[in-house]
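Below is how a single chain appears once it has passed through the pipeline. First comes the sequence as given, then the structure the pipeline wrote out for it. We keep one example in the README because the format questions we get most often are answered faster by looking than by reading.
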Amino acid sequence: MSAKNLQLAIDALKGAFAGASTPEPAPVDTTPPVTTTPTKSDSTKTSGGTATTTPPPPPPRETTPEPEPEPAPTKTARRIPFIAIEGGVDLLNRSFSWVQPVTNLRKYNLPIFPLGHAKLEFYPLALGRQDILGGIGLEGGFSFAPWLRSRRETVMDDVYPTSTMRIDAGLAWRIMPVKTLNLSLIPIVGIRYHSFTVAPNSSGARLDLLPNLGYVGLRAGAGFEVGLVNDLIFLFGRFTVVPVFSSGEIISSAFFPNGSNFGLDGNVGFGVGVLKMLQIRAAFDFTRYGLTFKTEPTDAFVAQGAVDQYVGGTISLRFQY
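Resulting structure:
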């Protein structure tokens, strides 16, 4: 074999091996890929070679949240009244006696007798405030019995027209120390006029040896009031002292020129609410005046002192706003 033929055979072998190991390049797809997002409606399940489509769940229903209910406004009941009006009847026993073993003066006793009474309390600041200043106010009371009659024990047909009257007026301060309890403490200060008069009979004659009384004095003390069972029941009470600086005929030139008089006054009771602003009240009342005289051996009347006392009860109707 010539050298030329050998070279041709080697080149043919190289070409055969090169064609077998180097394949032709595949055509390139230059189209951009399309990206798809699978949705719930495209989801499928394959079961036993069969594709089933699962329907998408219904979209959530839009709900509007309900507004929260507004809290009801808290209403605090006014406990200090703006005004209170009370009227009723007192049933009292009056006893007047002399402090002396033997005296030439007449004692007096009047069994149960009725008096009409009225009372007013006015707290002008309580309408706009319920603090300590809201309890400053005024109060007044009036009791009267002009229809009474007095008789001598020995002459029952001899009638003497008789009347009694009491007037109280002053300042009151209603203080509520415990805010969670309807409890009021009520200091009071004022004046009092209290009279008991026996007028002449039809013949113009007076009931002798018995002075007509007309007390004028100061009045100072304190009271309380507490509401129970949602203010259905009320307990109340009051105690005052009454220094008297004028007593009428009994401390005068007509009977005893020199003397002094000091009184005590009190009550305690309960009330029941029948309506929101209306109460029925009942109370026990006590009033006592103690008189002391300075006498001389030449005085016409003999006595060391006297006691004028009223004891009984009260029934009343009270309106309070």
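The chain has one domain: 83-320.

See the next section for the split statistics.
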